[in-house]
Amino acid sequence: MTLPKPLKNALIVALTYVCVVLIMRYRRDGMDWGPALLIGLLVTPLALLLSAGRDRLMAKATSAGRRARARRRGEAAE
Predict the structure, then answer these.
(1) Model pTM?
(2) Taking a C-beta distance cutoff of 8 angstroms, is the pair 40, 23 a contact?
């Protein structure tokens, strides 16, 4: 199932924020809610940037594979 890009981005942002905050809050040392929430705010844009970079890289790889297959078919016909 594929999701529309805005919905996918919103889910990534929300889930990343919640996961980071909960991990920081409930790890062994524990952290107060304030710093955990601030660290979540810093980490969330980074995760979105990495996700966008992965999508771009995968799109480039897909198009490169199509071009390579087309080139092989063209060379095989000659």
Answers:
(1) 0.60
(2) no
